[in-house]
Amino acid sequence: MKRGENVVKARLMMIVLMLAGLLVSSVAGAQTPPSHDGYWVSAWSTAIHAPLAFPGLPPTPVFENQTLRMVVKPTIGGGRLRVRLSNAFGNAALTIGAAHVALVQQGAKIVPESDRALTFGGRASVTIPPGAPVLSDPVDLKVAALTEIAVSIYLPASATGSSTHFWAQHETYVSGPGDLTAQAEMPNRVTQMAWYWLADVEVWTSDQATAVVTLGDSITDGVGAKQGEYEDWPDRLALRLQFEKKSAKLSVVNVGIGGNRILHEGAGISALARFDRDVLAQPGVSAVIVLEGINDIGWPHMKPRLPNGETLKDPPFVHELVSAEDLIVGLKQIIDRAHQHGIRVFGATLTPYEGADYYSEDGEATRQAVNHWILTSRAFDGVFDFDAAVRDPNHPSQFREGYHSGDHLHPSAIGYKAMADAVDLARLRGAEKSKAKK
Question: What pTM was computed for the model?
């Protein structure tokens, strides 16, 4: 080989090594910001899904030249925040003409001096492509933990509410014509029970705060609780954490979806399919509590009633019958995927459901088998026995008297509180020591 060729190859190798070094240093810098700089943590979140196509539900709304004011309650505080909007299930681009965030005074009324305009790359408006999210620029706004804030968005062009969360914990206010995002009050408004396009509120922190995600179905989503009262078990848990100083750095973000299942679609895509977006993509997550599987068990036995009052002879989901082993495999997948990202996983036992429309003795046997595995397998980083917290000690397949909301499936306010009280805060606090995703 000639000397000139050796020189050229040596120079090329030096360039490759220099580029590799730059790449490694830039990746390391992105993963490990300076400690004085801080990081983002999810303080409130919901699971966005496509509109639910169940009989009896209202049609998907269409908004045009209207303002939506959505009220949420961050579970940790901060002095700087940003908002994530999502067009995850949209078939067309979504234009946000303006967006604001403010503290809530009462109902749809905001505290005027707290109002902040949100921008997106420095612009007041943004167009979100189908399937995509968008993050706002950060704004300085001091928000205490468990304080309601309002996110207002103006929709100048026709927009179908295709990316939503049906069972909101607070009603959404919809204005008459015009951009009312900066207005303190919203006259001539109507209300919706859902959130639209609002996926996440994040706070900037340098105080070792982390997020606990609650993954589940309607029992996590809070069905049976009064809207606006925050009686669901994740909100009750957030309240407990804030009352105990040692735990106040943990936020609780609720990504339950009513009707959701681990293994099959139905109400929202399955837990396995949405796990990356709803759990792993949350900033600052250190732990997840999983309470899911009762719909996987019950839906194949469900016999819906027809408008004439008759019951369908053959359950429509009978072909989706699952075994305890099927559910255990799904739960193991969730555990493994979380552990790959340094996230601790807590299992929660499935609550009773005898008396519910889709109850069956075979399904009860499956529930008991799954709960036995959750309690004894040591597959999770910890277990919270929600079943024991709410079941009737004399009839363990049923809720304790007064602990369900009337349908023998969803807890009452008392039942939800008992579930939140069953969470071992000392064990959950161990999540604070886990490395947060920064």
Answer: 0.88
